[in-house]
Amino acid sequence: MSVYTTVSREELIAFLKTYPVGELVDFEGISAGIENTNYFVDTSDGRWVLTLFERARVEDLPFFLGLMDHLAHRGVPSASPLEGADGQLLSRLNGKPAALVHRLDGASVMSPAPAHCHEVGRVLAELHKAGQSFSMQRVDCRGLDWARDCAAELLPVLEPEAAGILSSEIDFQSNHDTSHLPGGVGHNDLFRDNVLFDNDRLSGVIDFYFACNAPLLYDLAITVNDWCLIEDNHHDAGQAQARYAALVDGYRQVRPLRDEEIAAWPQMLRAAALRFWVSRLYDWHFPRDGEMTHSKDPEPFQKLLERHRDTPPSLAAV
């Protein structure tokens, strides 16, 4: 959520005339995140988030917006998109595909307690169940083929140790089949900054622009990696384990895991760590221009991947 495409007040006023939102009161760019241009927009009739899609393929956007609408109508607290005067969820602004979505109440919790993690696990499983009835499909754009393509550009600029880890991990993942695992639509980017809490109540899931069809266990692994296993300065090992147990328990209460998923867990944790290590490495070494942008440090995911390669946490013991 950065600002790559600048929108003036006059341009935004003209854009909002196609939506039933009243008059523009105020707006500001959102600097967090790295993929799209985002603005908070306040009008006389409500609070919204305007997204201009910078990288996403236009043909993928009906999937993203349709999924958000589908989940919101089935009780998953997701930000639902707003229809314009033409009845469509997708529009254009300053030459970019654009959408206006309801701004949810609450704020991200960057130092979560186990209770927060339990709620995240529960809602993720509810999302997976609700997604089973979503008819559209989308292939993962951040799969192994993408990782190999990125690695071809990254390997010449990486230190030898990191380059060796990257090459060997891609080889490892290439030799493991996941087609036998239960699949469906997943969020696939459910980091702490993509979940909102309002007085300890999970009030919203946002930023569905990496959603795709993949093993549901992969989505759980992505979520666990960020919420429970990334090292920070706020929790010791015991608290991290408590968060891990709480998130997995919340998930399992809604969607019990199969034996084959439990067996595949160590590999899936590694695959999830690899994906975000590669994406952050790429943005770190090949940054894009933008008015308000920042690249996230790839080192935490390298360290996490190394830990998973040595001693991945078990699901059976949770």
In short:
With 318 residues, the protein is α+β, with helices and mostly antiparallel strands. Helix content is 42%, strand content 15%. Strand 7 (195-198) and strand 8 form a beta hairpin.
Care to describe what's here?
By secondary structure, this protein is α+β, with helices and mostly antiparallel strands. It folds into two domains: 94 residues, Phosphorylase Kinase, domain 1; 197 residues, Aminoglycoside phosphotransferase (APH), C-terminal lobe (Aminoglycoside 3'-phosphotransferase, Chain: A, domain 2, Alpha-Beta Complex). 42% of the residues lie in helices and 15% in strands. A hairpin with a 2-residue loop joins strand 4 and strand 5. Helix 3 runs parallel beside helix 7, helix 6 crosses helix 8 and helix 8 packs antiparallel against helix 9. The longest helix is centred in the last third of the chain and has 27 residues. The mean pLDDT is 93.
Q: Kindly report the average pLDDT value.
A: 93
Unreliable stretches (pLDDT < 50, length at least 5) are: none
CATH architecture of the largest domain: Alpha-Beta Complex
**Ends distance:** 34 Å
Largest sheet: 5 strands, antiparallel
Count the E strands. Answer: 9
Q: What's the tally of helices?
A: 9
Helix content: 40-55%
- Structural class comes to alpha+beta
Report the portion of residues in β strands: 5-15%
CATH topology of the largest domain: Aminoglycoside 3'-phosphotransferase, Chain: A, domain 2
What is the 3D form?
A: globular
